[in-house]
Design a protein that fits this description.
The protein is mainly α. Helix content is 88%, strand content 0%. It has one domain (3-153): Four Helix Bundle (Hemerythrin (Met), subunit A), CATH 1.20.120. α2 packs antiparallel against α4 (106-116). It starts with a helix and ends with a helix.
């Protein structure tokens, strides 16, 4: 794989992950809250995450894979990488760990709650997801800023 392909895939899958969170948080979330009763809203979110989360898994694999390929290839390893690369790496790992928690804990509870029509339990799980996804979205946007301007400021 050459650098242009690795970087293109890297950026593409960052856009898919961070852009998906941005759309869900600033557009879909308020629209669903204003227009749907809890059973429909929780069912919608369960279905949305069921379709979006496989893309997040793929994004994690591609972003980390291409990131490490570029880090250990063109950059020559951690010792030679500029500070902004270290920051992006750390933030990507934090985002990944947050996603793992979202996927294996509150998302699992949301799906179970929707299946059993336990709307209070589902609302609690969705509320936990909202906070964690907001954190991940913030970290993702900061990472994009660092990726695009980091070498000029750091």
């Amino acid at each position: 794989m050459n650098m242009s392909i690795a970087l293109s895939l890297h950026v593409l899958f960052v856009v898919i992950w961070v852009g998906g969170m941005f759309f869900a948080y600033v557009a879909l979330r308020p629209a669903a809250a204003m227009n749907l009763d809890p059973p429909q809203r929780l069912s919608l979110w369960s279905a949305v995450f069921t379709r979006f989360f496989p893309w997040v898994w793929l994004s994690i694999v591609v972003v980390l894979g291409t990131g490490y390929w570029m880090l250990f290839g063109p950059f020559g390893g951690f010792a030679n990488a500029p500070v902004f690369i270290h920051i992006m790496h750390t933030l990507a790992l934090i985002m990944t760990l947050i996603f793992f928690h979202v996927f294996f804990a509150p998302y699992k509870r949301l799906r179970q709650a929707v299946e059993s029509k336990d709307w209070l339990k589902g609302a609690k799980a969705l509320g936990q997801m909202r906070i964690l996804i907001a954190a991940n979205l913030t970290i993702g946007l900061i990472t994009v800023l660092i990726a695009t301007a980091g070498k000029f400021f750091i």
